[in-house]
Fold this protein.
Amino acid sequence: MIPITEFKNRDVAVFGLARTGLAAARALTAGGARVHAWDDNDATRASAEAAGVPVSDINSRDWRTFAALVLSPGVPLTFPEPHRVVTLADAVGVPIMSDIELFARAVNALPATQRPKLIGITGTNGKSTTSALIAHILKEAGKDVRLGGNIGHAILELEPLHAGAYYVIELSSYQLELTASLRLDVAVWLNLTPDHLDRHGDMAAYGAAKKRIFLNQGAADWAVIGVDDGHSAALCTELTRAAVQHVSPVSSGQALGRGVCALGGKLIDALSGRSEVVADLTQAPALAGKHNAQNAAAAYAATRALGVDHRIIAQALTTFGGLPHRLERAGTIEGVRFVNDSKATNANAAAQALAVYPRVYWIAGGVAKEGGIDELAEFFPRMAKAYLIGQSAGDFSDTLRGKVATVMAGNLEAAVKLAFNDARASGEPHPVVLLSPACASFDQFRSYEERGDKFKAYVAALSEAPPKANGAKA
């Protein structure tokens, strides 16, 4: 845990008691603050109390007594309208911040010689893989590495701050919009495509929240920016012209005169302006696909900026094991391969998985994002059949009508069985059943992790008792 001492002997409100809220409450308490934690959900409050977190109804307190409000990243700050606790805090001038902001202030309070290195990663897609890959490379280089933020452990759950440590932090737009003091030695921006517009309102606001990752950087710091989409390419040009920090473009779609690119399975380092092939990505099984090639290029640029030898990075790319729920191999039964890509919670993320396989039995659906799956049209010819689940099934069926054979499977267990039977009966040499839902999971599951774990459990059950052939109609 990282104790937060800034608010010692002062009252602090913490709203939202999921993973980050609980960690913030504990860190503040450890630092001597009087914590008043609350959540609108009765069960969540009971769970927090059972875990020893001090729960009190902040709605009935005098807000002028609070030194700060620590807000869970899932709570609306401005759009579609501020949550009532945000309004209460604003009315009396109580500062509102995230757990990341608490962390940043704790780092900034240290003497410069005692501060750890901070590496932050954001983007619509690829954040988790790139964060984990950077952490893996740094560990292979013998560094003292802590990985957290929007991945794994909440940032304040990590080991205490000290010089020589490297904190690799996945940062969502929700976290960044509540963060003002974070200064990153390396800030990685992967891409920007439509997502979370129900929270931010439009692409401009979404991009502005993400762009806060570069706040406070100076001449010694690095910005690593993917340039394979228009928004990100424009941002790279903007930061390069501003010349505040070092800027490294990265790409998996174009050769770069300066930066790092991945082309034809080769990773090319042109950071010095001279191009050199430094790694063979075909030897990195967990980094298949064009999207992972960009992730690898970004991780390479970030760790080179931190002084890691290119040979160590190249070797680490081949030993990276990948992440659960992102193109994760879930098993092979009677020649049918199962791939768990449950983390694909929007169409753009699903497109990255669909681009890897020439033909798939596709399981999709859940709570759709704006635009549905229209942008996946180029991949429709790769779909042997689509097995639709959840809230979006009807809309997805309408989009696919006349283009892809579909089955209204309803739930994930049925979809796995139906897809397996069809793939097994297809006669194809290595058929792939791909769960890449292009949707959030909250209609049928608590999280994309639970959805992916269920998928793996259903696949395991098939290996024990394969289902009989089905007669489902497309």
Remarks:
- The longest strand covers residues 383-389.
- The chain has three domains: 11-97, 101-319, 328-464.
- Residues 448-464 form the longest helix (17 residues).
